[in-house]
Amino acid sequence: GAGVSQSPSNKVTEKGKDVELRCDPISGHTALYWYRQSLGQGLEFLIYFQGNSAPDKSGLPSDRFSAERTGGSVSTLTIQRTQQEDSAVYLCASRSGSSYNEQFFGPGTRLTVL
Amino acid sequence: QQPVQSPQAVILREGEDAVINCSSSKALYSVHWYRQKHGEAPVFLMILLKGGEQKGHEKISASFNEKKQQSSLYLTASQLSYSGTYFCGTGPDSNYQLIWGAGTKLIIKP
Fold first, then answer.
1. Do A56 and B97 make contact, defined as CB atoms within 8 angstroms?
2. Of these four, B3, B38, B59, B78, which has the most CB atoms within 10 Å of its CB?
3. Which residue among B53, B87, B95 sits closest to A42, beta carbon to beta carbon?
4. pLDDT, mean of each 10-residue run, chain B (110 residues)
């Protein structure tokens, strides 16, 4: 009965390094979202996975960002050659199949790029 | 394209009422409301759909004016636990994408 989990909870990295952020959605949820939230700001959509369909990558800010979802469950967001402007909280959310159901958010990963 | 939320911030005393608005420049299919407390993940409050269907928590009420392309969230007899930032997410069509507002910060004082 666990909720959405994300790891790590905090990540400090140096500019130019690659980072991987992990999201474990609620079991059985077919939809998975990644968002970015800068300090005091709203939610910025990054990418959306739904079942076996091709992901909607329209929110990824640059080609340094990529994400995959293996076996329809766990997802990894990868940021290559991190920049200071990548510093933010990265939130993952999952949802069951119905479009009317709410998104359940994970606790987020706070990324700090020095 | 981002929905506009108003007010940006509001300070209330416990027991007072508040209305938070969310307006879109595009026709809407759905409006979703979430609350986020500082340092925590957003939590679902309510979904309102074109045609009148709603799904949400009992103590939360909201309206969805399709013609005006706006939604309002009503917080009555506010409690300290209502403090947080309220986000609306709008769905311009029947897909699963939401466009999020910038949030309304609500502070409840005893």
1. yes
2. B3
3. B87
4. 93 95 89 92 90 77 90 92 94 74 94
